[in-house]
Amino acid sequence: MRPAEPLGAEDRERLLHGAHHDPHGLLGAHPVPGGVRFRTLRPFARSVAVSAKGLRVELFDEGDGFFAAVLPLIEPPGYRLLVDYEGTELEAHDPYRFLPALGDLDLHLIREGRHEQLWRALGAEPMEHEGVAGTRFTVWAPNARGVRVVGDFNYWDGTGHPMRSLGASGVWELFLPGIGEGALYKFEITRPDGSHTMRADPMARRTEAPPANASVVHASHHAWQDAEWMAARAERPVHEHPFSVYEVHLPSWRPGLTYRQLAEQLPAYVKDLGFTHVELMPIAEHPYGGSWGYQITGFYAPTARLGTPDDFKYLVDALHAAGIGVLMDWVPAHFPRDDWALAEFDGRPLYEHADPLRAAHPDWGTLEFDYGRAEVRNFLVANAVYWCEEFHIDGLRVDAVASMLYLDYSREEGQWLPNVHGGRENLDAVAFLQEMNATVYRRCPGVVTVAEESTAWDGVTRATHHVGAGGFGGLGFGLKWNMGWMHDSLVYVSKEPVHRKYHHGEMTFSMIYAYSENYVLPISHDEVVHGKRSLVSKMPGDWWQQRANHRAYLGFMWAHPGKQLLFMGQEFAQGAEWSEAHGPDWWLLDPSYSAEADHRGVRDLVRDLNAAYLSTPALWQRDTVPEGFEWVVSDASEDNVFAFLRFDAQGAPLLAVSNFSPVVRHGYALGVPGRFTAWQEILNTDAGRYGGSGVTTPDPVKTEATRHHGRPASITVTLPPLATVWWRAV
């Protein structure tokens, strides 16, 4: 044995300061003239010995934590290191004796931006490598001068754990033997200017609970029980099937409950009310609870506030067992500037656009992704696939699509530059959304993507290969939130009935464009916060009239073409705005509360609306084609009355009539198809059990051979005050 040739001063300095691209070339065991050189970097160690079969040799101390020697061996043996720290000897595998644990195909796909299961290549992956159990750490940081792994396993000092650069891919890798699930870690990155930054793993699949922000090594052990659900969902085209959504903010639905505790309550509640789906506000990890999850730092990790990733899978499994589909809000539009997360991740703009005008989001103080960069686009496309494949999510509601599509979104003149064609469209974002939708629909049968898009962009729900009048292919979404309907209809119902005749068109205008896209009618969290008031509190009049308006509006909404979404608390007419600090006012449903019946009545109506909706194909089977709808009365502005027919695929009709005035209208004639002998009232929002005045029609109404509203027959009915009534032909 002899001392090794000393490290060059530059290599030594770069290793000690985390700025070396190839630590494996200097550390570990390497053949040299006359034997095998062993070198290790173990800060704070008193001594280090090499242990192999029939061999134990102490290495020479080279200072600064370096220990090395040349042993008279023909080739590197299988060996371990015996490291003495103040009299405590630890035996460990040498991380620098292992070949890369990431394959060439993975690196090629990463570089091309085409790795559709990116989470299997980047991040922290517990595995067995070359017969040894440990964790492979990989991170994309192409601008870094060096990267080191730090964690609770090395006392957050990465000096002894520099990573190697895997060439032009920009990926850094290190396999650490003996590190397993539950270990906390980050990446210490040496920036181009030589400074250091400690970063959470962008690909972390588990994190610490905020405000702590370390990443956690994770492997899933959940055994899915929803094979039947997953097989069947691909057979149900969403636009031709029932789709009634209950929107939930998980941390505040029942504050204090974990994912597993929510699994005992949420599925039963949603199933009882008859909703077909839940939509979860963002559950990816986010540092600030007040953002409701819309400023994400951990795109691949369910928030640790409520439990582990497997706990979240347990909740999804429970919802599927109850027959409930699971949508989640997905936020690829922007990310926060936290200096431990994605912003200037490796010392330069990486995930964000290099142009500050393109990077800074003008409304939220956040950064916008650089959709034109292949690796960034890959990060987001794979993320969409990840939630669907790994967590069995049934749909992604994509947040703030409009802010992505337009270069001038919320920007004044001089704050943006046109695209190569001189237009305002963000061509990179368009291409990204098309790729994301195409990839998700190809890989995940039965999943639906939903756009929150607030402009008149052409072809949001059109196939990506169908080019529209504007010269763009469709964005490829399955559904789009109808923000126009939401805004217009709320303007109408918020007016006193005496003034509604001047706003009649607000309720009919939606049918002019109803079939331009596949729509969802959203009464979401955004409509019941920040001074906008809850749904029932938007309504005019006294408490009875407010509830009556609320019920009539829900009846109109459930009958209108398009799917429907209702935010939690609105199903029982909560009077206060939603607050993430305490969630819905469940006490309103306490039998000891004097007005409990008022709120229970509204919830009973929502249950019955969903039941009637599910059993009436006319309300969902032809949602996206004009043949499924006909106006009966669209111009009765003086009466505040709207009446229309919905038809199923066989032509069976449902008649929906809304009277948004506070008076009973007797002897109201409505034109109907002549081939039916009678019409039966199947739902009436004025029923006494809902808290209404009880103006109902229990017996069938006979069809008369009297022309009305351009139809050969008619029925004459009594319209209850501030109510919606549904009749089915019999």
TrEMBL record:
One of its GO terms (molecular function) is cation binding. Residues 689-709 are annotated as: Disordered. InterPro entries: A-amylase/branching_C, Branching_enzy, GH, GH13_cat_dom, GlgB, GlgB_N, GlgB_N_E_set_prok, Glyco_hydro_13_N. The keyword Acetylation does not apply. Residues 247-607 form the Glycosyl hydrolase family 13 catalytic domain. It catalyses: Transfers a segment of a (1->4)-alpha-D-glucan chain to a primary hydroxy group in a similar glucan chain. Pathway: Glycan biosynthesis; glycogen biosynthesis. The active site is at D399 (nucleophile), E452 (proton donor). GO terms for biological process: glycogen biosynthetic process. Catalyzes the formation of the alpha-1,6-glucosidic linkages in glycogen by scission of a 1,4-alpha-linked oligosaccharide from growing alpha-1,4-glucan chains and the subsequent attachment of the oligosaccharide to the alpha-1,6 position. Belongs to the glycosyl hydrolase 13 family. GlgB subfamily. Monomer. This is 1,4-alpha-glucan branching enzyme GlgB. The lineage of its organism: Bacteria, Bacillati, Actinomycetota, Actinomycetes, Streptosporangiales. The gene is glgB.
